[in-house]
Design goal:
Elements (H helix, E strand, L loop, with lengths): L3 E7 L3 H12 L6 E3 L8 E6 L4 H15 L1 H4 L4 E6 H13 L5 E3 L7 H8 L6 E3 L21 E5 L1 E2 L10 H5 L3 E2 L2 H13 L4 E5 L16 H8 L7 E4 L9 H9 L3 E6 L7 H6 L6 H14 L4 E8 L6 H12 L5 E6 L17 H24 L5 E9 L7 E5 L10 E5 L7 E9 L4 E5 L6
Parallel strand pairs: 1-2, 1-3, 3-4, 4-5, 5-6, 7-10, 10-11, 11-12, 12-13, 13-14, 17-19
Antiparallel strand pairs: 8-9, 15-16, 15-18, 16-17, 18-19
Helix pairs in contact: 7-8, 12-13
The structure holds iron/sulfur cluster.
Length: 449
């Protein structure tokens, strides 16, 4: 049997990336090889995102781009999987005849079976199961991140039902892995050289709520910090109302848990938060931020906001802008509201025009850039733990890395101007300079001799 070369492009969030790694992990090496060269690939897989309009455009553009390889390259089969087919299987099937196989968000472990069945068949096939799949520590997974860092998906799906969000319809209801399974996976990742584990879910604070009993994030973390060789545990996607005092205490006291928290807040105006079906109001949000700052003084707080939600008046936006300008966050992502068919918010009155959304997004990010610049400036002279990631794209003379305050893929970088270290090392670095999002520094002691 000849071998087939597979190229996989994963778009969207780290949860999608884990699904992609599971698909790659299921490819038996005696039959399949993995390539990043799409022109040479026999099979191209596009793992799509359909969260908002921008993400869908990127997904369709990518599909059309690689579809060309069916004419110009070696591609015999084009597979589209993930959130787009889960949501738009009929439309995709009609509008993209060049796609051979459509799979959903719950079908990752079936990739090989479906490829083997589809090989040589001219007609397009759609295989969209219910989004109820959940991997565990025994699931084959080919890591796509650098050897020293990895994501662990501790749960999938979501029961929060924010009024603007399609994720529950794409990813299903909340389902959590057992703590034993998460700990076993973390242990095996560390044995492979992983030093940083980023815990992800749609909402990590809801972890275990579907399993009842003692399964929750506060019980899981003390087990993870015991793993020798694991140095950084980072918490991403925490729902604000779900952040308990115990969780705050664990972040504050456990050395291995990064003083970093990603808490999407979405807005600060009570009426808008209510329309969004969010459970924490302005008073609760401010109290949470105050508590976090008091208990974890050097916390790096990341959040995201939606601008242009239906009915958002200029005054309500100014309130959000003022909240951001108060400087509560080291990192902010600003999304323009995307009208998602099938969500309650899509039928709401007073939809905001695109040009207002664009202007509000620009103003919010500008205000945050000033805050980030100021906060980074305040780090100059301090010693930071930095994970060395390799040489900077700009020049081989510069090593680069990420500080404990910078999550993979979304936050800035650290440029190392003095000192030597190997990729994957975590070193103490003296910060000598900074910009809005990046830091510059020297490995401690590098210039002593
Ligand atoms: S918590 Fe996040 S994933 Fe869940 S419904 Fe709300 S926005 Fe969507």
């Amino acid at each position: 049997m000849s071998t087939l070369a597979v190229s996989l492009i994963s778009l969207g969030c780290p949860k999608n990336l884990v699904d992609a790694e599971i698909m790659l992990g299921h490819l038996p090496p005696e039959r399949y090889t993995i390539t990043t060269d799409e022109a040479a690939a026999d099979i191209i897989v596009v793992n799509t995102c359909a969260f908002i309009e921008d993400a869908r455009e990127e997904s369709v553009d990518t599909i059309l781009e690689v579809a060309d390889y069916k004419k110009t390259g070696n591609c015999k089969m084009l597979i589209v999987c993930g959130c787009m087919p889960q949501r738009y299987q009929e439309e995709l099937s009609k509008e993209l005849p060049e796609v051979d196989l459509l799979m959903g968000t719950g079908d990752a472990p079936r990739l090989v079976e479906l490829i083997e069945e589809q090989l040589g068949r001219p007609e397009q096939r759609t295989e969209i199961g219910t989004p109820d799949y959940l991997y565990d520590h025994n699931t084959p997974r080919a890591l796509a991140s650098p050897f020293y860092t990895s994501y662990i998906k501790i749960a999938d799906g979501c029961d929060n039902n924010c009024s603007y969000c399609v994720i529950p319809s794409l990813r299903g209801t909340l389902r959590s892995r057992t703590m034993q399974s998460v700990v076993a996976e973390a242990q095996s990742l560390v044995e492979k050289g992983v030093k940083e584990i980023n815990l992800i879910a749609q909402d990590i604070t809801a972890y275990g709520a579907d399993l009842g009993g003692a399964t929750n994030i506060e019980a899981l973390l003390p087990q993870l910090v015991k793993i020798e060789g694991l140095e950084w545990i980072r918490l991403l996607y925490a729902y604000p109302e779900g952040i308990s005092d115990r969780l705050i205490e664990l972040i504050a006291t456990e050395e291995k848990i990064c003083n970093y928290l990603d808490v999407p807040l979405q807005h600060i105006d009570n009426d808008i938060l209510q329309q969004m079906n969010r459970r924490l109001d302005e008073k609760g949000t401010r109290a949470l931020v105050k508590k976090l700052r008091e208990r974890i003084p050097d916390l790096t707080l990341r959040t995201s906001f939606i601008v242009g939600f239906p009915g958002e008046s200029a005054a309500q936006f100014e309130k959000l802008l003022k909240f951001v300008s108060e400087g509560h966050f080291e990192r902010v992502g600003a999304f323009r509201y995307s009208r998602e068919e099938g969500t309650p918010a899509a039928t709401m009155k007073r939809q905001v025009p695109d040009r207002s959304k664009n202007a509000r997004q620009r103003r919010l990010m500008k205000a945050q850039a000033r805050v980030s610049f100021r906060k980074n400036r305040g780090l100059v002279g301090q010693v930071e733990s930095v994970l060395v990631e390799g040489y900077s794209e700009e020049t081989e003379l510069l090593l680069k890395g990420r500080s404990v305050r910078q999550a993979p893929d979304v936050d800035g970088q650290v440029y190392i101007t003095a000192g030597q270290a190997d990729v994957g090392d975590i070193v103490p670095l003296v910060i000598t300079d900074s910009s809005e999002y990046d830091l510059i520094g020297e490995i401690q002691g590098a210039l002593d001799d």
